[in-house]
## 1
Amino acid sequence: MKNKLLLACFLLIATGVMAQTSYQWKTASSGGYSYKYVTNDPTKSRFYTLKNGLTVVLSRNTKEPVIEYRMAVRAGSNTDPKTATGLAHYLEHLLFKGTDKFGTLDFAKEKPLLDKIDALYEQYNKTTDPAKRKEIYAEIDKTSGEASNLSIANEYDKMMTSIGGQSTNAHTWYEETVYNEDFPSNAVDKFLALQAERFRKPIFRIFHTELEAVYEEKNRGLDNDAWKLNEKMMEQLFPTHNYGQQTTIGTIEHLKNPSLIEIRKYYNKYYVPNNMAIIMAGDLNPDELIKKIDAAFAYMQPKPLELYNPAPEQPLTSIKKVDVYGPSAESVELNYRGYAQSTRESLLLDLISSILSNGKAGLLDINLNKQQKVLRAGAGYQQMKDYGVFSLTAQPKQGQSLEDAQKLLLEQIQLLKEGKFDESLIKATVANSKLGLLQAFDKNDFRVESITTEFIQNRGANWNKSLAAPDLMAKVTKQQITDFAGKFFKDNYVVGYKHKGEDKDVVKVEKPAITPVNTNAGKNSAFVNQLFAMPVKPIAPQFLDYKKDLNFGKAGIADVITVQNKENSIFELTYRFEMGAWNYQLQPYAAQYLSFLSTDKYTAEQISKEFYNIACNYSFNVGNEVSTITISGLQENFDKAVNLVEHILANCKPNEEALSELKSRILKSRENNKLNKGAILNGLMSYAQYGPVNPANYTLSNEQVKQIKAADLVYILHNISNYKHTITYYGPQTKEAFISGISKLHKLPSEFTPEAPAKEFNYTSTTANQVYFADYDMVQSEIRWVRNDGKFDASLSPKVNLFNSYFGGGMGSVVFQTIRESKALAYSTFAFYSSPDKKEKDYAMIAYVGSQADKMNDAVTGMNELLNNLPRVDESFAAAKGNSLNALETSRITRDDIIQAYFSDQRLGIDHDSRIDEYNGLKPLKFEDIKSFHEAHVAGKPYNYCIVASDKRVKMEDLQKFGTVTKLSLEQVFGY
């Protein structure tokens, strides 16, 4: 499960000012139920309150036959007992373990063992003698093993997989615990039966292996410098409130001494209907669904509730400083304490964050990022229930101190306080916000996330004000902003310095001795069998017909592909080039350079402001093999936006100072890449797949970067349209109208310039186990297995789909069940057979485990057993197959995604919707087919082990047991 940062969305913080009359609460009745709604709500959400106090919010969106779901509980780490931090997060994990009806073979026999485990943990918590604690834990381990013979691990995920769920997850944060799912709309009855049972009487089983997963989650946090910086800064920003005094995952001491009895008390106290909400958006009938929800959850009984009510924080009257050390790149962050939700002050801070940083025309964007005074800078406002956090961040450029970067951030605050910004920024922010909402509210997950946030912070009561927030922002004057900024931004912040260096306080949660538990993966409880037997009306798949769903034409010598947008006024135009960095190594640098260039009419700063003012975006993205120039926004500004991009490409002028700064920033970014363990691991993977010359290190050397000439980059930009490209358009215009318009705006040559041939890379042939190792100072070890496995074969796609679903996909997969559930070897693990994106490329078998360094050997052994021997679990296979078919039956490719699907199939040499073959090929597959696939492509093969870990925590002799060890330098990995 993941800890959640507050939803970063366009839905702006509500204000206490009276909203416009267009957004008003109304009451209505339908289907025998009363509900509230807000007039002109684009989500058409209905807010119900059932007799037991349960809040239900339903939003209908029939574009796809799926439903997005959240179960939101207004309790998180703020409500953890002071003596048991991390408890809410533990509970979140345990809500996946079943009840007395599922997750068990015989609850009557299992219960005495679970009661004994509860008692042993209480005894363990009260014991301080290390030897005695070890003895008690051994008894916990033994009893847990006995209990596991009667439990069934991950029956919840098995049922969700069979229903067709694609995104089972949950998160805990300061004042919330939220459980999320999506599922096909034909499975409502099954889904509600499962969810109602899930919360009826949860049983906390298979606890000590789940506890180990939480330990691993904590250790991953201890390896995350940004996480450590945030935690220490929150401590200073909130010396009284639990935002700063209790972390969501809890202290190491409390993690080591959990109490199942306290967790049960917490559940009974806070998981009550008057503190919970069911929020659903998608292809649903509200009148029918509310009746079913009411019937399913009527067993819930309300209780008196007292939520966390802290004493107010005293004002900050000085600057607090925090220093954090670690191996990642240095950065500086300034945090100011904001205000409660639904206050005018929070509205102003949200608006100010966009005035400072909006990606285009904010003060930080123009004065720092555009002028390359730092590597990058940004600002944002994060809203919680009781307070918000206003943040300013920067990464220093080459030769710049953290204090220098901090000073530059504060200078922008001073400009704000002095009113040295264009008042048009307010109007532009409103326009961009409305455009963002127009796009976002079309998505079910955005709808449920937005409403979930509303429920957590104020039980949804201010939904009308949140919808009206852009209009309210439009009424804010420049003078009001400067007056507020003058009062708010003082020497009243916490500054955090993330230094590159050794963390001398590094700790980890030590692992106890754990015996693998029995998962009983091949068995079902009676409840599961009943759920499986419930009838479901099939959903017919809808596949694309490219000849009908796409409109093909010509604009001059360029091919044109369009899809008409009949829903709103948004457009997206793309010039797509079948060339990239593998054709021209300078091309990605030219794309970066472009944003800093002026023309004969506009400065670089004016160009950014122009786009922001018309609420349009443009980007030049260069991949290895494909490059795109994309323009998007409202159709009414189409001509303005396209004209502006065409003008920039044709008339941009060299800027030597900007290039010098860009080179410096590139070199600094390269240094930072070498401090990023994820980037290092990806580099090892590329080295293993292609050898010493590979896509990850095929780049200019640092010396070559220093020699880049402005004239060469500008030449690429001036001539980019002379290379062959396809023009694609998704928007309100017909094909004919679009071609007529774009032919006038986009000038083309009489013939295209042939592009240079792309660099070709040779795949390695792995004949014996190899280990590629990179040293990195961290608690954990990151291990990936990879081997190449031959060119693309479209006939394999159904088997690849089903194999991945069964073997290494979700929580019910073979890999997750074994590595995490049974053996507790890792928090994060997966395995999949990777399909190439082009017919000339190879497949690859990839596996991953992120484990504590001292568990690396066991983790490798555990994964190797699965790679070589595929367990047969018929129930899991049936669920995986049903899930794969469900995903294809309910997926709907629409809008501009139709164009992207067309290009993806083209690259694979397929002239039709490839999902047709995949769907038809899936239907007859049996376990024997997947078994033979595993034997032919996965089992008994030599692998490349890519390992990033600290050489102080792993032994070289252990690595040598896996295969021949090659320790790579970072220059070998990155090519610089």
Note: DSSP finds 37 helices and 25 strands in the chain.
## 2
Amino acid sequence: MAALGENNENTPESDVPRRDPVGDPFLRTRFAVPIRPATFIRRERLVEHLDRALETPLTMINGGAGAGKTLLAADWAEHLEQPVAWLTCDPADQAPGVFWAYLLQALRAGGVRMRAVDEVGSPADPSRVDRTLLARLAAGLSGRDRPAVVILDEYDLVTTPEIADQLEFVLRHAGQGLRLVLVTRTEPLLPLHRYRALGTITEIRDAELAFTPEEAATLLDLHGLRLSGDGVRALVGRTQGWAAGLRLCALAAQESSDPETYLKEFEAGQSAVADFLLAEVLKRQSAETQELLLRVSVLDRFCPELANAVTGQRHAEPRLAELHRANAFVQHLGHSWYRLHPLFAEILRAHLRVRFPGLESELHRRAAAWLRRSGPLPETLAHGAAAGDWDFTARVLVDDLAIGQLFLGLRSDDLGELFARMAPDAEGPEANLVRAARALSEGDVERGLAHLQQVERELGRELPDAAAVHLNCALLQTLAARLTGAPGRAERAALKARLAQRDLASEALERHPELPALLQTHLGAARLWAGRFEEARAALSAVVAAHGGASTALPREESLCHLALIDYLEGRPSRAERKAAAAISDAERFSVPQPSGSGIGQLVLAAVAVDRDELDVAQALLDQATAVGHGAPDPVAAAARIIVGGRLVLARGDAQAALEVAGSGVTAAVASPWAQEHAALVASAAHLAEGRPEAALTVLDEAARHRTACAVEAARAHLAAGRLAEALRVLDGVHAAEPDGGPAITVRALLVRAQAADLAGDGATARRLVTQALRHARRERLRRPFLEAGPWIRPLLATEPAQELAADWLSRRPGPPPAGGPAPAPVVEPLSARERDVLQRLAQLMSTEEIAADLFVSVNTVKTHLKTAYRKLGVNRRNDAVRRARELHLM
């Protein structure tokens, strides 16, 4: 910065004023640019922004106490290659004469001297300034070749409107000769809207002044502190990048043997940060405003009406607006809502507990009562819990029909954690309903049922206005019936729910579309367990067809997955795959945790992968489903896991393990016909694989022989035992019973008939039936039926047109090596058709997400296919996988 005496050769020293209009000597410290501490860091992003001050007449650095405003301006001023006039304002500057005398002296002290300034003189009257003096000053500045830079620090201390008008007059008429920089905690009384409209103002505000994690790490490093990235981000989050807070925390942490732990766990109310904020912010306010701040500190956010309700005051609105304008750590969120700076709120709460012991709970209770009428449910519950009023909190959850949110995955963890603190002496049906819901959501069905029985006893006392209690109780009873495999109880509970809905306002039900969605999902699952597929499909399809957004994402996913399981059980693997993949993709779109629910979607996809002989993919999907650690035990999922697990180990050649899995069974109040049937199919296939056809027939339940799948397996066992006629009799007996069986069942039935024809010496019929089976299987890419058929089928697959139909998907032989080059190493294990589908899209430079969308599968499924393909091809990268697949003529 230029030296003090520049351009003063025409000004006699005796003409320079040495006293202000009051007669006191000028305080030279007010003209001194503040010295930066050794730990100051120059933040280039702010300096670059502040450099625009040289292009606009007005610049405002506006931030709260300790935001780093003054040090930023001081560092910038020291690096300018021109004179800068610095003035630190003072409360005594409210008199216009005193203010302008100091500002003129700042120009001289900063080396911004010129004949016009010296000819202006100095105000003689502390209370006023002659307009002519201001005009001369503006005219003199406007004639400069280079603009004068004037920085007014702590300008918020100057509150006289007359001074603001005078300053704006000089700024406007000085033209390009003045660059005014105001460092302030509040917006000045200047016509800022005019400068903003014309684009002639440079502004740096609190949000920009906040330290980034990278800047904070550098600052801590200057204090000799080296924190982990997570530690720095946590500190920045707690302080919101507040400069003074970071510096004070760093200084305190230097005294600790474990700085990172200290900065993570320090008590804000007992720290230098607290002393700073209480002195610089709280104690500067009036008694009424201090009380307002202390009492709203219990609120995460607040509007004037809520603040009035909590504090008992009437005039929160103007006080909050002024606190925000003054950058007093009150942040405006929009639409008349505010919040306190988190660290400031933490300190105020500690101060509140000391000054008003016991008041905090009452403030939470008032907030909960107001929010119950006008605010969002999560905040109402949070304040009710903080007040320790659990009867109120449980009643709010039940009356709002929001108990289903304990099962939705989106907010279930938050609600579970909140009600985990519920006092054991909380009474009433609402409290017991919440206990039952938490128990069922955690998989403790027995405890959940005990609480539901208590609710039913309480409902027997004819409680008034109990429709919401009845509906929530029926929902939980339906869930409990589903989880215990009791479809009859589920139907009765669902009926109770429908009756209770009649007594509730439609608006309440419309606010919570997840409640009927959960009810129908549980009912559909119970019907599926009972084997009533069409009734189950009706309930589940209603959930899928409804549009409830994120709140019904999990019920929709579960319903789609159950519908997919029905398709699979009916022998339609491709249809099942599409539904399961759509369910998982839809859940991912709404950020529902994956795998979610009971993992049925992954089980269906695994079952389809087994049918296609994609065993690695099936194992990965089965592992995903098994890894689901939350939620209650679900008999449908348990049965599906047995079926898929048994078929997978059997496909890998371990018949004994398949028998053990199939015999493990599912605990339920009522046996499921399809669960028994498919477990018997796995066991029968395992016996046949080990050459025991009689044992295979024994495990097939006689009552299920009318089912096509069981009949086909029984016929296969008879053929293995050499009973051709009996095999044909069994097949003929069920052909008309299930004419609409899906392709998976049709393919197996055709192959058994082809085997029978082959044994009877009717080669033409055998070839025709194998060809028909190939046509059905090709569309679904079903390989396991052909691999399990036995050696008799191999000659038939080598004939035309079977060979042509089997090419590219059933027989996976790589083509010849490229001419003129060495043959590539063979693939140890053939790629599956789906793995080749994924590689084809990789070659088109599609992303993982694009491949998933194109194939109607989830991103996780694509990643599993890629991982398996890489292993089979012996590569680690995408480009290498595509290149090698082309070398092997697999694409």
Note: The two ends are 72 Å apart (CA to CA).
## 3
Amino acid sequence: MIPRLTSHLAPASPAGFFERLVEAGFNGDAESRAGARTVYATDNSIYQLEPAGILFPRGADDLKILAKVLSEPAFSGMTITPRGGGTGTNGQSLTSGLVVDCSRHMNKILEIDAIRRVARVQSGVVKDQLNRALKPYGLFFAPELSTSNRATIGGMVSTDACGQGSCLYGKTSNHVVGLRIVLADGSEWWSRALSETGLAEILRRQDRIGEIHRTVDGIAREKRERIEAVFPKLNRYMTGYDLAHIRQPDGRFDLNAILCGAEGTLAMIAEAELNLLPLPAHTALINIRYNDFNAALEDARTLTALKVASVETVDEKVLGLAKTDIVWNDIGQFFPDDAASSANGINIVEILADDETELERKLGEVTAALDNDNPDRLGHTIARQHRDIEAIWTMRKRAVGLLGNVDGPVRPVPFVEDTAVPPENLAAYIREFRALLDSAGLSYGMFGHVDAGVLHVRPALDLTRDDHIPLVREISDAVVALTKKYGGVLWGEHGKGVRSEYVPEFFGDLYPCLQEIKRAFDPQNKLNPGKIAAPSVEPLLKIDGVPLRGGVDRAIGNEIRAAFDNAAYCNGNGACFDFDETSPMCPSYKATRDRRFSPKGRAALMREWLRLLADKGIDPRAEAKRLRRGSSLAALPRRLFNSFDPRNRGDFSHEVREAMDTCLACKACTGQCPVKVSVPAFRSKFLELYYSRYARPLKDLLVAAIETSLPWMARARPLYNLMAGTEAGRRVMRLSGLTALPLLPPRSLKAEARRLGVAVATQELIEGLPEQEKKRAVVFVADAFTAHFDPGVALSAISLARKMGLIPYLAEAKQNGKAMHVHGYLGRFETSATKTARYLQGLAGAGATLVGLDPSMTLVYRSEYKGLWGSGTEAPVLLPQEWLAANLDTLSAQPQQSASSSYSLLPHCTERSNAPSATAQWKTVFKALGIPLEIASTGCCGMAGTFGHEVHNRATSEALYAMSWSSHIAGTSSETVKMATGYSCRSQVKAIDSKSIPHPLAIIDALTG
């Protein structure tokens, strides 16, 4: 049996500090439980450092209170580190002190001044969130990042972030108008560029603000020649304490040059005023394929010389991984394999123009240059449509995550990935870089911004191995020397963080100036100590002086890591922090803004749980097998005792279960995470073992048995409807943990099918059909929920099949098992899934086509059935649109006239993320009928199977529905026919908006003669 597990203690207890904060008026949240500390112990780097606690301020006033309390003598040993999106690749926001996370509450866009082209935002606003709000004004915030859907403005300022297009648009610092900062002593300041008169006034002040300005101004004046000599003339200059840009081109003094890139070592950022630019009127991408990656790098110099907006390069490894990712379905046409060979590198060239004529002229100039005789080029394509351009950039943005999606423990990791050299030196520099990695016997992936001389390089290492750990030091030292040789810097884009030990080497005799600036801002070294600059008595962090994630992974072991659905391989890229309400990725994070309730957070908790088990010498795989051989009923008294035993209250497993309980099991992470972290899969394995120690809630027992109990409930339909449809009955059901239950209709699928002469399919029946009839046989696999609560969908499918000249059958009422799997009844699921799979495979083997009706339930046959603890068998069941798209020639009947002018489909989120071609196939089917179909841009409806029917989830469920579904249901014209593929989605619409929306099969059946 899994014992009580206690996670390691934090380095220092913040309890007294938190109490003092509340006394002082702090209104934000504070968290010091082991689970939250575990989640905040990692970012997108190779390091792991557990904080003492996490603070979530609600505004600038909270930041001021925090700083003032921190200055009190009683808390002299306490330090703080600001954290934005938490996707840094170099441990910038990792600390053993307190983390200050502004993303949960300080995420408001405060002002948009379209006339002045300035926006004022809180530091927790996400870049894409801001640009979505700016789009109606024809404006955007320019610095482009691969993490733009989760990068906060405060984080961008702290690393002076930039990415694709930096040669045209520059870095974040080039667009910062003002920063509202809070200093370590609690004083507040709006930092804006100052005229000489304004600066002189500030220099006379005898407070912290005056001292800071005197220090920085003095260094800028006294060290001007050395600054000019030391700082490289690069697009990606040495950001953070940027002495070279203290004076703006117009001569004004700008303290923001020091603050941008300072990684929270100087001040906390409360708000930012940002310069905005007009959206490009016309855009196109030229996608060029090469037979050799070096050829792509060499060619980039030619392309950059043509004054294009940007040139991005991707190597063969990243390109190969992209072909297996969800994005490839939308962009594959732009990167075709050539007859002779596949591309071993690509350049993506961006063209911008004010009008179409100018765009075509620029395209002509570039394509003419491509017509010269270059044997290394394999061809090119042009993307002009906005959706295609966005899809290609999405692939490029996912590159950093895709590199983690490889098999085995040896995986590309970041630590020397953002070097910058003059673009003219890039090809020669990369040749030496590759030779360095090749000599070490390492594989790697490369992609980046060749126009700016930046290439992201991730060597593949297994940092649980004794022979790989020293390579971090050896390669880092060698790359530092290499970048200096070619006139570049180690930190071209992703900040310094743990790599701060190299700061003195790059800044040389200017490093003491950085120390002076640090002392002026933060004399007690309270803010993110050890990064960029440190007082003379304090050390800088070293790349081999901070604990590695590999230490935890070594304790778990590779076999167990591999058995838990990539939980231990989450690289922290943070794709699951997507703010966009219309994206299916992780609804629970969107609803709560709690990073524990994200795939990254749950993976971190699962990884720690596995480590704790390993410390106890327990193999969870063996424990699961042992459990399935025993009697769960016999263990019930022990589980009840454990549930009420006060000694178990501190069990770390409870914190893991709390995070798992908020998962909707929608599987968006499985489809959309670049590393393919599958929370529903490892959640089920965790719950199975957790409930071997503790008693299950009643609602789990009811939900797990739903498929077998529904036929009995249907026989007692009036009694069930009395319970589900009256207030008294609903109160009783809430006591069991269930709510918002649908009513059973009077129509029975079984009786209607019998009336229509539709037989129940068996293998023998199908095998006995004449060959021609066998080819026309289609078996509808109706899940229990659709069959009992919405039988009209199956009846529409039967009607439509007959119109298509096919012979419809119904599958036997076998258990699908999804509810059992979701709640961790894996032994029972495996037993029922094996029986069902054999039955369905028998039908398919006999020659019948199998078609499911609900996407979520149907996809279970293709995923959960495929692998469960190494067993299970996939069942070949098609989605309805896959079936129809393969039989378009039989949809020959013309659609009948309809009063409706438009049709809109709200797809199921599991369908969107795990069957990428699904929505396009619906459009294909409707187009064949002469009907244009709009695919609504929605996230999760919040129901997700039984999630929204559970009392403790209902508030989250309704919040998710309000995010995107509510406006689509209420806001479109009455002439628009709205459809939904998921039964749970249709159930949610009925429960909240009291509206019935049909399945598309019902509409197609009604429209065809």
Note: The chain has five domains: 109-278, 285-492, 563-695, 745-876, 879-1009.
